[in-house]
Amino acid sequence: MSFNTDTRSTSHWMRKLLPCLPVVCLLCNISVAQPASPFKKIKAVPEKYQLLPLGEVQPGGWLKEQIQENLNGFTGHLDRLAPDLLLDDDIYGKNRLSKKVKSKDVGALGVAGDWQVQFLWWNSETQSNWRDGYIRSAILSNDKQHLANVETYVNRILATQDDDGYLGIYDQELRYRFDNENGELWAKASLLRGLLAWYEYRQEKKVLTAIERAAKNVMQHYPAYQSHPFYSTNPNVGGVTHGLTITDVFENLYRITGQQAYLDYCLFLYADFSQQTLNEDAQYAKLMNDSLPLMGHSVHTYEHLRSLAAAYQASGNEALKHAIAHFMAKIDWTTTASGAAIGDEFIGGKNANATNRGYEYCSLQELMHSYLSLFAKSGMSGYAGRAEKIFLNAAQGARHPTGTAITYLKTDNS
After folding, report:
1. Burial of 294 per CB tally in 10 Å (0-12, 13-18, 19+)
2. Contact 245/186 with Cβ under 8 angstroms?
3. What is the pTM for the complete model shown?
């Protein structure tokens, strides 16, 4: 694969151009029509590139060796290293959350109290994000034992699906009934991304059927433009806003099935997210305010970039295309020489600093994912170059050179 070696990104030029646009328009006597709403659907924009199913391209050389090393390390053994979080808590099955559950072992230390409700969904993230990476690693390494382990897991998780299609972590009395912190959509997003990876590899109809039933269950209980999945009385809700990444699932279902309703649902989700009172950077009005730097929890900010991109793809609304340009300009200010974007938990309105500001490993992965999503949609090689830069610099730099560990929080100059 070749990449554009011109390091002057589109967002760089957009940042230079934006202050000049009013003058240019005045001199040229151009009237720029604004759509009635940034969330109005105009016409869906097709992706420039078709994504290949997982497993179509197999790694070789040092890439394959690194994946196998990961499987020999914690990627292939996390369930045995932390069985209390990965195995003992059957959070998608018999240990679903109910009103009776007030606390849970999630691997974090803290005093007891009602505030711990924010942690109750954590094990779903721990389990499903790990499973997602484990599934993909097993496929890419073509390791027979690990593939057999994955098949056993997939069959077990599909058996937890309710008759109405629900796959998730809440009992009947709680699901879809929230006005504060919850992990409803986030637990589904992390789970279904892994199941979609397995479907791409195995092409088993029962897996796709289960995923579609789960997705339609969400659409039924959070009907588009008739519900508010991101409403919260508290603006600081990590699980709720992580849940915007369920757009990954609906995008992939659109690619697989061609059903426009799945892509249109991404637009609804981003619209509702933007219209709620939340402390999140990727809300439309905040992106369009150039005086507001990025402030939020970094992994949220960078993963939401691709949710915005999905909303633009669904709508073709130029307002959302401009929001992407503004978002990229802000990310440029937080990006270090290695390609990583800062955020030692929170960005906090700070600019990149190779010595004094760190970046989380999860943020590297999420920003890479977002860049590759933008690359597929736009065909602009600069986005692929950004992802490549992160992977070959910051991500490899945070990896232990001889061991099977990473530095979770790192600076360029550490």
Report:
1. buried
2. yes
3. 0.90
